[in-house]
Write a structure and sequence with these properties.
The protein is of the alpha/beta class. The chain has 8 helices and 10 strands. 39% of the residues lie in helices and 19% in strands. The strands form 3 sheets. Strands 3-4-5-6-8-7 form a 6-stranded mixed sheet, with helices on one face. Strand 1, helix 2 and strand 2 form a beta-alpha-beta unit. The longest helix has 26 residues.
């Protein structure tokens, strides 16, 4: 951002946030979506946009990026300009070649999905093959950096069981919880670097699927909450005695919900906003 009244974001705050995470434990920064350029720009803004892109690239090199998947905006100045910026940022493009990152004791395989349209965007076979290769090379967790729309990613995820986490890079919402996607989970941390999406892995070097116990428990609670409210409204309107029994059963199920397990191969997701008061 370049205005004095910027409320969220700023690469200076992002740098401070990443530094704090690294001080707390092994950390890898993953970047997905249009990063150097947001969209095509008119000629009279070319100087500002090019200077901003150069500054972003230099800043990302200082911060340190473990894996990067560009979005459609990154190509607006041409492929040569994009490649020069990517090299200046020192950001490995995992759409070109997937890689395994060592994060503490965990081997995290990261692949990138470049912008695509039509059948090519929805074909799970090549993505599953890349994920399987990462597993074969020792990846204990597989992450897909998806520079594609949410609907496309959700449909694709149904056919790619090997991916644990899908990080959305095309118009992502600011969500405080991951959501199920296929056999994995979808994470949306917003756009323009206004937030940092924080994923903490626990016991992730173990075999098996990565789970989100706290998120799964909260989703189950919210679902029952909604059903209880709907039944209560229907009961108030109809006075149907059968609804009283249904309400009692729903409330019993809600009361019986167990606390999320704090064991096993799991992760915790949180959204960290970067407000004006954040260290720079």
């Amino acid at each position: 951002g370049c205005t004095v009244d910027l409320l969220l974001g700023g690469i200076d705050r992002l740098a401070a946030a990443v530094a704090a995470e690294r001080a707390a434990g092994p950390t890898a920064l993953l970047v997905v979506g249009s990063t150097f350029f947001e969209k095509a720009f008119p000629e009279h803004r070319a100087g500002q946009e090019q200077a901003k892109a150069d500054l972003i690239a230099r800043s990302l090199r200082k911060i340190g990026v473990a894996a990067f998947a560009p979005g459609p905006g990154d190509q607006v100045a041409g492929p040569e300009r994009f490649e020069a910026l990517r090299e200046a940022a020192g950001a490995p493009d995992v759409t070109a070649q997937a890689r395994i990152i060592q994060v503490g004791e965990v081997k995290v395989g990261v692949l990138g999905l470049a912008p695509a349209e039509g059948d090519a965007a929805l074909d799970p076979a090549p993505v599953q093959a890349r994920a399987e290769r990462l597993r074969g090379d020792g990846a204990q967790v597989v992450v897909a950096l998806a520079a594609r729309p949410r609907r496309t990613v959700r449909r694709l995820a149904r056919g790619v069981p090997e991916v644990d986490l899908w990080l959305l890079g095309e118009h992502p919402a600011e969500t405080s919880a991951a959501s199920p996607a296929g056999e994995g989970y979808l994470v949306e941390a917003g756009d323009r670097g206004r937030n940092l999406g924080r994923i903490v892995l626990h016991d992730a070097a173990r075999p098996g699927k990565l789970r989100d116990p706290a998120g799964d428990a909260e989703r189950a609670r919210r679902m029952l909450d909604g059903q209880i409210k709907m039944k209560a409204r229907m009961l108030a309107l109809t006075k149907d005695p059968s609804l009283e029994q249904q309400l009692a059963e729903l409330r019993a199920r809600q009361a019986a919900l167990a606390a999320p397990a704090a064991e096993g191969k799991r992760f915790e997701y949180s959204l960290l906003p970067l407000p004006k008061a954040h260290p720079q």
